[in-house]
Amino acid sequence: MPQPTGRLFDGYPRTMPQAENMEQVFRELGLQLDAVIALEVEPEELISRITSRRTCKACGSITNLNDKALLDSAVCPRCGGELFQREDDNEGVVRRRNDAYRRQSEPLIEHYRKKGVLYSIDARGTVPEVTGRIEGIFNRVRETRQQASG
What we know:
Elements: H1 16-29, E1 36-40, H2 43-51, E2 53-56, E3 62-64, E4 83-84, H3 91-115, E5 118-122, H4 127-149
């Protein structure tokens, strides 16, 4: 079975100038942008997720106190290490980052929609559920690409 040749960029580009620069580099390298995935979630859900996020001091794993199995727990479910909340995982910082996203990054949604490469997915649910939705997009893009080349 051939190895995948795709690339995944997480959190880049964030602005129109970055998108234009990336697209120029792609053209120079003869690469094609097949898909942009927009994870859609309500701001209040995002705030809840981020302010409930904890990191293990020992192993660095990230967990979320919204997981009912971890409620009222101060220990890492992987190694038993101490969990802590990052300084920037507070509501004020999250709201400011969300405002910056709306100003700088939301224009990219329409940009990629017009190019026909935008796939919006519902980011509510468990990690496996959202991962499955993303994998479904990867599979559709791969199939479309194979059909176009075959």
